[in-house]
Amino acid sequence: MSIIVGYIPTPVGQAAVDAAIREAKLRNEPMLVVNSSREGSLVDKNTASADDLARVLSAAEAAGVDARVLESTYREDLTEEFLGLADEHEVSLIVIGLRQRSQVGKFIMGSQAQRILLQAQHPVLAVKAQ
User: What does residue 104 show for φ and ψ, rounded to 5 degrees?
Assistant: First the structure.
């Protein structure tokens, strides 16, 4: 078993990684870090750089947690891609970050986090940035 965390290079993404490291250490399980990019997208502000991912892996290593990055791309549905990876790797916990959005924003744009919370077949830990 392992813990999977959705990471984007933002304070919310860092909060998710920090929580995942704590949970992985507590459960003595490895951590899988997912940062998916849209297929064919030349620029995506949510795509982590190699330096961002190196910092995440370094923080996990410093905490004594075995971690690796699962790089993936998605065409249309990020939630399906992420939940598919969670199922494929038979994780014990999904960790995601939440950000504040208005009701109108959720209605117009949807919410990946909300869909993960509702559709996941595994326990989900949702965290906010400070």
Answer: -65, -40
What spatial distance separates the first Cα and last Cα of the chain, rounded to whole Å?
Answer: 29
Sheet containing 124-128: order of strands: 67-74, 31-38, 3-6, 93-98, 124-128
pTM for the model stands at 0.86
Q: What is the pLDDT of residues 19-73, one digit of tens each?
A: 999 999 999 999 999 987 666 554 556 678 889 999 999 999 999 999 999 977 6
Within its chain, how far is the Cα of 30 from the centroid? 14
Q: Phi and psi dihedrals of 77, rounded to 5?
A: -130, 100
